[in-house]
Each structure stands twice: as structure tokens, then as C-alpha cells.
Amino acid sequence: MEQLEDAKSRKLDGTCIRTTRIFWKLLVAPWRLLFAFVPPYQIANGWPAFICSLIFISGIAYGVTQLTDLISCVTGISPFVIAFTALAAGTSWPDLVASKIAAERQLTADSAIANITCSNSVNIYIGIGVPWLIDTLYNFVAFKEPLRIQNAKGLSFSLLIFFATSVGCIGVLVFRRVTLGAELGGPRLWAWVTSVYFVFLWLVFVVLSSLKVSAII
């Protein structure tokens, strides 16, 4: 009887695994087909592959922003709230994976933390700075007026909350260095406490910023 149950259990597990694999292959099939058009990296020292990858990523980013606008229109949720939550989490997922791999493979936490800080620096200084410069020049040439932010108060408030939560985050890293001798890892209890605290800081930022742009506070 036990052998029969074990056989049924193994069969059920095998079915679940096959179903998961089929679902995953169907999910990634369009992306594999799209990026199959990227030239091999052996050509011209990889520059064509790099340029094509940037073009495809830019196209995907544009599609995501359009999808965000559609979701906002259908659900009635402010696009700023969607940007604070789903869009930000989706674009930060690669950073999370890269930091996780770096933390597991490196002897120190330098690579994991540097990846996060440097990627956000690129997002702020280049991802915002370059389009802002282009739009500012266009407004100056076409309309003879500077570029204005419609929701300046909401942006200022969000930046203030971001700065405050960043100070709290860096303070914890310094505290862990002094007390535990390491920014990441350590005793499992402290690792979980730190993780929950960081998630709490993110929730504080999202909730307060969303309430501000929704004119609730």
C-alpha cells in the first residue's frame, strides 16, 4: 500500500514538474524569439549585440510604460501609484537577482551593495538626466519656455521620503558593521530582522508617496 502511494506521489510530482516546465517555456518563448535577432557577441567585439540589446530593452521599457498607462486608465489607480509599486518593482527585479548572485559568490558584500547603488545612480543621472535635458532643449527651442513639472510637490515629497528611508537603510548597514562585523548575512535572526526592516522602509516610501500623489495627505 505504501509503495502504491509512493508511486502515485512520484507520478503527481512528475506531472507538476512537467506542467511547470511547459508553462515556463511558453512564457519565455516570445522573448527568446525576440532576442534571437540579436547578433552574436563575436561580431565586431560585441558592439552590434550591445546596440541591439539596448534597442530591444528600450522598446520593452516603452511597452511597459504604455501598459502602465492602460492599467491606470482601466482601474482608475493613479499612474504615480503604479509607478511606485508594480513598475518600480519590475524594473528593480534584475538588480535584486544580480545582488543575490553577487552576495552568494563574493566573500564580501561590496559587489551586492555597489550593484544597487550604482544602478540607481545610472537611473537617476542618466535615465532621468538625459531625457530631461532633451525635453528641456525641445521646450526651449519649440515653445521658448523652460520645462516644468506638473506634480512638483509630489516629487519633492517623494524625494524627501526617499532620502529619509535611505538614511535609515545606511544607518542599519553601519550598525551591522559595528555590532556584527558584516553588512549582509550573519546570524539568521538578524538577517531576517534586517530583511523585514528594509521591506518596511520600502512600504513606508510607497504608502506615503502614494497618499501624497493621491491628495490624501
From TrEMBL:
Keywords per UniProt: Ion transport, Membrane, Transmembrane, Transmembrane helix, Transport
Entries under InterPro entries matching the protein: CaCA, NaCa_Exmemb, NCX_ion-bd_dom_sf
Transmembrane segments: 21-41, 47-64, 71-90, 155-177, 189-211
GO cellular component terms given for this protein: endomembrane system; membrane
Main subcellular location of this protein, as a coarse class: membrane
Locations listed in the record: Endomembrane system
GO biological process, one term: metal ion transport
Membrane topology note: Multi-pass membrane protein
The keyword Chaperone is assigned to this record: no
Domain Sodium/calcium exchanger membrane region residues, every copy: 47-209
Protein name: Sodium/calcium exchanger membrane region domain-containing protein
Organism, scientific name: Cuscuta campestris
